[in-house]
Design brief:
Helices cover 28% and strands 46% of the residues. It has helices spanning 3-17, 65-69; strands at 22-27, 30-38, 41-51, 54-60. A hairpin with a 2-residue loop joins strand 1 (22-27) and strand 2. The chain is globular, with a radius of gyration of 13 Å.
Length: 71
Amino acid sequence: VKPDEIARLQNYLRKVFRTPNLEVRARAKKADSAEVFIGDEFIAVLFREEEDGEVSYQFQMAILDLDLEQV
């Protein structure tokens, strides 16, 4: 994921999740994806997909059962 895409994705996700603390970061050794953080906490991976000349992004977030018990 290119730096300009990261900036656009970060702005979009900050609006959607209504938090200025959200940050999209490039992944080391992975050009097809980026990581999403809120503050220092990792929350998801964004995958870039291109098919038939169209680009889309998949937001993948795992929620552990252990995390649900803390709510």
